[in-house]
Amino acid sequence: MGYEVFTRESTQQRSRSSSSKKIQTNIISTRYTEFSKSPVQLGKEERLKWSSAFNKLEVMRHLGAEIILEDDYIVSCAIKHIMDYHRGGMGISALNGAIISSLLDCVIAVSGVLQFPGKKAGTVELSIKIIKPLFGNSAYAEGFVTKKAKNISFSEGFLYDENSKLCARASGIVSKA
């Protein structure tokens, strides 16, 4: 399944293209419009370079995920092909909680870190609510900054299954070091 990142819209629905079907999301698009207060502090070319370097990190390779920074406000992270090692233990086919946490931390952290270009920053608080098990073969998370101060930013993140059903949400704080 191929993903295209959402473009910032004021409509109630956003859509993603996939090779097999159009996936509709009724997710929090009004929330994005209302609360996504601070755009990523890099231009498009810089975002593409930054995401390319980030995706080469060992942790991203092991996670099997890709960060996507095509939108001015929204940071996306996708696992396009969920593998057996992404799934829960004990023979459960749902996405493992550690993977859920990693994807949500990724969008929270990156949305916050990019508020402070050239500075060291990281997640200092992360709260995750799992709404329902995530079954299927792909997953994606989206995050954005809701508030920025001099040395910290506040972000929210949302995790969706391949049918664009909300499965988990997170809030977090990113601080400059």
Characteristics of this structure?
two-stranded antiparallel ribbon, 177 residues, disordered N terminus
Largest sheet: 6 strands, antiparallel
Distance between the termini: 37 Å
User: What is the tally of beta strands?
Assistant: 8
Helices, by number, come to 4
CATH class bucket: Alpha Beta
- CATH architectural type: Roll
Radius of gyration: 15 Å
CATH superfamily: Hotdog Thioesterase
What is the overall pLDDT average? 79
Task: Tell me the structural class.
Answer: alpha+beta
**Which fold name is given in CATH as the topology?**
Thiol Ester Dehydrase, Chain A
Name the overall outline: globular
What are the low-pLDDT stretches, counting only 5+ consecutive residues below 50?
1-31
What's the number of structural domains?
Answer: 1
SSE order, one letter for each helix or strand: EEHHHEEHEEEE
Percentage of helical residues?
Answer: 10-25%
Describe this structure in words.
This protein is α+β, with helices and mostly antiparallel strands and 177 residues long. The chain has one domain: Roll (Thiol Ester Dehydrase, Chain A), CATH 3.10.129. 24% of the residues lie in helices and 32% in strands. It contains four helices and eight strands; from the N terminus they run ββαααββαββββ. It has helices spanning 29-35, 44-55, 58-63, 97-113, and strands at residues 14-17, 22-25, 66-68, 75-79, 121-130, 139-148, 152-161, 166-176. Strand 6 (139-148) and strand 7 form a beta hairpin.
